[in-house]
Amino acid sequence: MENKTNQLKDIDTMKEKINYPYVFDSIDVGEINLKNRIVFPAYHSNFSNADGSVSDKLIDFYNAIAKGGCALIFTGAIVVSSDSVAFDRVMRIDDDRYISGLSKLFSEIEKNGAVPAVQLIHYGRQALNAVTGHDLIAPSAIPCPLMSQFDPNYHVREMTLADIERVRNDFINATVRAADAGVKVVEIHAAHGYLLNEFLSPYSNYRKDDYGGSLENRIRLIVEILEGIRSKLGSKIAISVRVSGDEFVDGGLKPSDYKEIIPILEHAGMDMLDVSVGVYESAEKIIPAPDLGKEPFVDIAAELKQYATVPVCTVGSILSLSAAESIISSGKADLVAIGRAQVADYELVNKSLAGRENEIRQCTQCGKCISASTGDPEMYCIVNPSLKRPK
Ligand SMILES: Cc1cc2nc3c(=O)[nH]c(=O)nc-3n(C[C@H](O)[C@H](O)[C@H](O)COP(=O)(O)O)c2cc1C
Fold first, then answer.
1. Mutate which of 44, 73, 360 to test ligand 1's pocket (most atoms within 8 Å of Cβ)?
2. How far is the CA of 43 from the centre of ligand 1 (A)?
3. Residues 232, 169: Cα–Cα separation, whole Å
4. What percentage of the chain has pLDDT greater than the value 90?
5. What confidence tier does 106 reach under pLDDT thresholds 50, 70, 90?
6. What is the pTM of this model?
7. CA angle 80–149–222, rounded 5-degree value
8. Is residue 385, in this structure, part of any structural domain at all?
9. Residue 83: CB partners within 8 Å, gap ≥ 6?
């Protein structure tokens, strides 16, 4: 009897899979197997405890996303260095004391059917020294055009070689802590104009030493981090790198630049390429405003995929599994990250799998989840009743 029930369940699952055969095809990232192609991207929520440790609210949030059916969840972004705590309640991993909370978070995500991942960040010049309580550091002492408007005392200084060595070790030590806590994939945040993006881009890196000038020099810190992680951890964890395929600023990185960049990252140990876009000066692209239309940046990911041998993830206003299916089936990307639409309805994947697309609560792209711009103490969602506005 039990056999018969299981057989019926298998047949049901097979039938359901026919709706989205590309989405529900498993894939390996490094040595980590993913059950389908849907990713939850890094999504800063301000749900941590005040000291940056994992809170019950954070665990509840990620558990709900995991139960909803996506394959890979990037928690974070999580801060690797104590001088870059850019928000009051940003997640932190700059000390061993964070390991136990993260261990609980990662094991809960795994119990609920998704692969736990974490995105590692240093905010570089895109922060406020009034909040971090430290000098902002960057490859070059060029203020962020956006953040410098918010504080007359905004100040950024050029990193010394000792700073570079410290930050490199911070990323590597953070990865070792994440691995100790049971993470399966780490993502190096080299997108959106944060520190590692600042090094990579001729737009923000004017250094004259071994870390500036040629591509070989601008990419050196990222390569050293990737190689450092590999030498400490082997292939125990997979490594994703998030890049801005187009920075959308004059003199910034363009998709064609990645023809040279991607082979270097792959050679240094990258297992997955996560293609986003933008820096703070082009912030309306990072979290695409609705007037940019649906799936505005898939073609950028598709161009970068031509230069890559590892799986490539695309992101940006992808709101349904049918959109994801057509992106993957057309060969433009291997993985699809869905952020806001999964926050609006944690069950987006499972409802689609079950043919209940008409029950999905639609994301209106209202921007209320972006607590950094609403001024609310943490993110909320106007369509998801379990993410009410904080009082
Ligand atoms: C509230 C919020 C927080 C975000 N936090 C991060 C982050 O910490 N790291 C990151 O790389 N991207 C972050 N993003 C960008 C998302 O990962 C994603 O690339 C973007 O929202 C576009 O995808 P979507 O249209 O599916 O939401 C954030 C986006 C939102 C809305």
1. 44
2. 5
3. 11
4. 89
5. very high
6. 0.95
7. 30
8. no
9. 132, 134, 135, 137
pLDDT in tens, 17-28: 578 999 999 999
Q: Is 380 a catalytic residue?
A: no
Q: What's the gap in Å between 12 CA and the centre of ligand 1?
A: 34
Residues with CB under 6 A from ligand 1: 41-44, 76-77, 119, 189, 191-192, 242, 276, 286-288, 315-318, 338-341, 369-370, 379
Q: Is residue 390 part of a domain?
A: no
State residue 81 phi and psi, 5-degree precision: -125, 140
d(CA 257, CA 212): 16
Return the pLDDT at 17: 55
Q: Does residue 258 lie within any of the structural domains?
A: yes
**CATH number of the domain to which 64 belongs:** 3.20.20.70
Domains held by the chain: number: 1
Asked if residue 362 belongs to a domain, the reply is yes
User: Where would I find the beta strands (DSSP E) of 30-179?
Assistant: 32-34, 38-40, 72-79, 91-92, 115-121, 136-138, 156-158
Give the N- to C-terminal CA distance of the chain in Å, as an integer. 52
pLDDT number for residue 376? 80
What is the radius of gyration, based on Cα positions, of the chain? 20
pLDDT tens by residue, 242-289: 999 999 999 999 999 999 999 999 999 999 999 999 999 999 999 999
Residues shown for the chain:
391
